[in-house]
Amino acid sequence: MDNHTRSQVHLNKVGGQSLVFRCPLCQSRQNGRKQWAHHLATFKHNRTCKAAGVDPRNVEPEELAEVPRHTFCVTCNVHIQDIYWDRHIRNAKHLEKERFAEFKVVLDEAEKDKHGVVVIGDFDFGIVEVADAARGRTVGGTIKSGNPSSHVALVDIQLASIKGTNRGHSSFKVDVHGGRRAITTEPLNFGVTFRQGYIGRCQDRLEFLFEDKQLRTRFVIARQLEGIVGNKADHDRLRPTTPYVPRAKSARQPEIKVVEGVRPPSMKAVPYVVPLPRALIPATLATTLSTGTLANKITRIRNVFLPREFNTAGYDRHFKHLLWIEEHQMERDLEVYDMTNVRMTTYPPFYRLEVPGLAEKRPSVLVGDRILVQPKGAREGHWFEGGVHAVRKEEVSLRFDRSFRGWSRDQLYNVRFKLNRYPVRRQHQALDSAFAEERVLFPNRTHLPDGPYPKQANARLRVVNPLIGTNAPQLQAVISIVKQPPGSLPFIIFGPPGTGKTITMVEAIKQVLKNNPDAKILACAPSNSAADLIAMRLRDLSHDELFRFYAPSRAKDQVPHELLDYCHVRYDGHFSVPPMARMMRFRAVVTTCVSSSFVSGIGIPRGHYSHIFVDEAGQATEPEVFIAIKTMANPTTNVVLAGDPKQLGPIIRSRIACQLGLEISFIERLMKREPYGLKEGYGYSVVKLVKNFRSHSTILKYPNERFYDDELEQRGDPKVINGFLGSLYLPNKDFPIVFHGLCGKDDREASSPSFFNVDEVLQVKAYVQALRADRRFRTTDNDIGVIAPYNAQCRKIRTALRGVSDGVKVGSVEEFQGQERRVIIISTVRSSTEFVEYDLRHTLGFVASPRRFNVAITRAQSLLIIIGDPSVLSLDPLWRSFMNYIHNNNGWTGSPITWDPKAPVDEAGGYDKQIRQAAQVDMNSFTREMEALTLAGVDAMGEEEGNVDRVYGDELGHGHEGVTAHAMSMSDGG
């Protein structure tokens, strides 16, 4: 109930707010966007539109100017029920918007020429090259009066930024030419200089204070100052190609009849003997997920669908419903990729469909997926399913049923992408199994063995990797795993960044096989790249001992050449499995978590594998990890997990599934249980690796203290981790971290919700070019990684680096987990404070996401460069604290810091409120000043101020955030 009463929907209702639409065809009225969307799907609306020859989905709503028993609030742009009007005008948000509207009126008035005085000049500097901006570019302006008998004088010039609460640096400077201050018909000349030695954007406001000697009054004329430092050609190439227009959501026509397509041969490449369940979402759950508020949905799901207690008895039911909830959201997310009025080409028996964004996995399409196609003009709800037979860069090859006819070059189609349900169905299949070992699902103290854990001195292991023998925590983990009796509780290798958890797990696999001739191992990982890494390090096993399984849809060119000999490929080129007799003899099988279902699917009996290993276990959902465990484990099977619950967890699309626990990985859930306390369980159930072999100590220091109890020890190769000390990129030559402050602008284009920031793209390009050109600190493309939180930013950076450094890897945080580079450049993108609330609420980007932050800053070995807007990032306590660490070690460059880096950081946050309050103060101050000038004479302003005759042109005040910028962000965000 509390969640509901705090929801915006509830607050709007209580406040009497109504957004009323009218359908111009049906002449009906709807309250709010949800009712409008529902109206578009009604039979009456569709019948009316059909009679009028209009597409029912393209009808634009009319916003009613007058609504019975409502008053329209111009300030808030919403209809208010009359009975709530008095309450509304006293509402804090209404009053805030009203104050902002008043400020805008005053500001608009200040920007007008008045009393016969005219200020002439264009003070938008546009895009200035970095070298030119560093030298300074000046534009001239003039002030003159059209009245020959006027007695007006220039009293003062100020930059708004030096008057605000956040004072700092300004990139603008003003100089008045000559000593004259009287304004006559002869022009009084002045110059505005824009000087900045780094890429970024600046805004400020120039305020001219004049005095009319005859009327003994003062007045202000204001002018906006703007400038962008960067390369104009790059800006033109990278700017939004089309304006951002959110994709309109309308009711989709139902799928009444779907003609099944022809699936590719790879779908039958593996001889499964165990049928896969359909596991369709229950109708009652689908209805619940489609109606009501988020809070109501969660309450109903908890009360109706989930077990009262999360324990062994209700485990399967709990996760099956979370999977259905996530699947429901994934289906909804695919709707944004629906295409209308597209053409196809044909190469019988295939049809080729161009899919924009396919190369960026927007949407992600694999061989074996389904795509629905509907010829334009076909009966509503009737679709043809196309089986995906091939995927190219921007094109897919489909094959339909033979009844699919009528193709021509001009034929138009509607296209709908369908979710590949095989991974979900495999998870449901595993959850349907009878395996319910409490020692695995819910281990407790009773599952810890009696007696001391196996000590290193008594182990007598001859390690395969000699480095393991010199690393006490790694060696202890290997010994504990090897000496575990059958049927033990799951063992965790807790591996913080760069501590070698995969190396430890591989050594443990080899030692188990070496010390137990009957042992057989199933090793899994969430991704193919992680599974490939395990297999590559197990290649000292023979071809009769190691098998790497790939899904038949995987292309050969996606597989490391060295692993092809450890796979089985059919006569038609698809990956498959060898005969059962050979499969049973393999001592180690490596695959992904989802594909691990193949072993039970082809008939290998439960318990065949003595050990199940899962690497990068923190990145997989619990049901994914349990595909192997629940289908293959028996009472004696041992489970080993390697990962770091402090790094990225699984990607979950559904907010409901997140809140109900699907984003908590199995390894993270176990680490919260009593047997895994690092004191109680050390050596029995968990070993934490503490020697970091990746990063320079200063790069390691902050995440070590913040996330790992300051237990990590720097053990990296000095030749690597010290590789950039003394370089020109470092403000502090002994501190290989750089925070590059950059006040840019984030954009979106077309219907993509993904953000990009051209200014940061140019700065990334500048760093990459400098690194590649440096002959003293030689750096290759493969040494550099660029991390950005948005797909759009990654695409723009790749475009900017094309032909410059094509080999530099550019990707999201998820793509870099488990990887490292000598140099990591992070582009944080966001520069508009009005969007920050959205980030905090939806955990987009790096803002308010500790795990993403942790992964991003721990990829670098010897040089870490962060590019971002400090005024935005500082709203998050974690980022503010990290930026303080960099600034206090003299690692800062670019746009200056806007707060006191020595002040303690409030972990509770609330910095966004402070900025809004400061903006309110600045806004009110400006409004009062303008009112005082209008209502009072010179005498009322005080003798001292009345005699002032000075010009402010020195570099005082922060030019990026003047009163206007603060006030704008406060209004837009509020």
Folded structure, characterized:
This is RNA helicase. The protein is of the alpha/beta class. The protein has six domains: 2-90, no CATH class; 107-237 and 915-970, Immunoglobulins (Immunoglobulin-like); 247-269 and 338-420, Beta Barrel (Elongation Factor Tu (Ef-tu), domain 3); 280-335, no CATH class; 472-688, P-loop containing nucleotide triphosphate hydrolases (Rossmann fold); 697-912, 3-Layer(aba) Sandwich (Rossmann fold). It contains 34 helices and 41 strands. Strands 16, 17, 18, 19, 20, 21, 22 and 23 form an eight-stranded mixed beta sheet that branches. Strands 26-27-25-28-29-24-30 form a seven-stranded parallel beta sheet, with helices on both faces.
In terms of topology, how is this protein built?
Layout: H1 2-6, H2 8-14, E1 17-18, E2 20-22, E3 29-31, H3 32-40, H4 43-52, E4 62-63, E5 70-73, E6 78-81, H5 85-89, H6 92-110, E7 117-120, E8 124-128, H7 130-135, E9 137-145, E10 152-159, E11 172-176, E12 182-183, E13 188-194, E14 200-212, E15 217-229, H8 232-238, E16 257-259, H9 283-290, H10 294-305, H11 315-334, E17 339-342, E18 344-347, E19 350-354, E20 370-375, E21 382-391, E22 395-399, E23 413-417, H12 422-431, H13 438-441, H14 466-469, H15 472-483, E24 491-494, H16 501-515, E25 521-525, H17 528-537, E26 546-548, H18 580-585, E27 588-592, H19 597-601, E28 611-614, H20 622-632, E29 638-643, H21 655-659, H22 666-671, E30 686-688, E31 691-692, H23 697-707, E32 713-714, H24 718-721, E33 737-741, E34 746-747, E35 756-757, H25 758-773, E36 784-787, H26 791-801, E37 809-811, H27 813-816, E38 821-827, H28 836-842, H29 850-857, E39 860-868, H30 870-873, H31 877-888, E40 892-894, H32 911-935, H33 943-946, E41 950-951, H34 963-973
GO molecular function: 5'-3' RNA helicase activity; ATP binding; hydrolase activity; RNA binding
InterPro entries: AAA+_ATPase, DNA2/NAM7-like_C, DNA2/NAM7_AAA_11, MOV-10-like_beta-barrel, MOV-10/SDE3_DEXXQ/H-box, P-loop_NTPase, SF1_C_Upf1
Family: Belongs to the DNA2/NAM7 helicase family. SDE3 subfamily.
